[in-house]
Amino acid sequence: xxxxxxxxxxxxxxxxxxxxxxxxxxxxxxxxxxxxxxxxxxxxxxxxxxxxxxxxxxxxxxxxxxxxxxxxxxxxxxxxxxxxxxxxxxxxxxxxxxxxxxxxxxxxxxxxxxxxxxxxxxxxxxxxxxxxxxxxxxxxxxxxxxxxxxxxxxxxxxxxxxxxxxxxxxxxxxxxxxxxxxxxxxxxxxxxxxxxxxxxxxxxxxxxxxxxxxxxxxxxxxxxxxxxxxxxxxxxxxxxxxxxxxxxxxxxxxxxxxxxxxxxxxxxxxxxxxxxxxxxxxxxxxxx
Length: 288
Fold this sequence. Notes:
By secondary structure, the protein is mostly helical.
């Protein structure tokens, strides 16, 4: 199966699995459940499930075994987007080419939908055979030492001029922590040993930063219609990005450097890691 077909297959099975795991919109409280489904289904690149499946394939995990950790990571990601868009956070009205959850519903419903999506992620892992280590890994990625902490640092950085190292520290937490968790959850669903997990952790650190650098470049270059979210929002709010700190040319050089480092980290894993290599190129070459 070529990469495009593999990616489409994983995205489709993730959509199906998410639709099955989410409560039906007909179940009380209907408005909350409808908002949860609205926030998760019918959009998104599913990068985290793709990374989870790609890592799991290295260690002979079946697609069915990978659906649960992949969906758990995606549910955490979806919750974070719902909360990020709220007026008290990044204050955006558009997400994945449609009105943000709090615009389509209301702020209170969006807040509760995000809360419920987060808890559903852990319920999903716990009820479908996820180990205590996997659950702890996802919790660490989502909490104050991971994504939530990174968001706090991001909010505090508005109007500031951090150095590149400080910006990287923020994104290792805000963006990179959940990406790392998705990769390691996939590996642990298979037969990965500690040495392989260490190698994948190094790869995950590079790919997490790479994703953010490319995101900053796209935010500066692409239109709102292409991105499906408000273009240029960070610059308008005086939030530091790789582009504002380094300039476009240097940000592109940084992306190329991170791509090379990510691919180099996969060499010891051999051809079995080809999907992760292909995803590395996809993350760099994507247009939205």
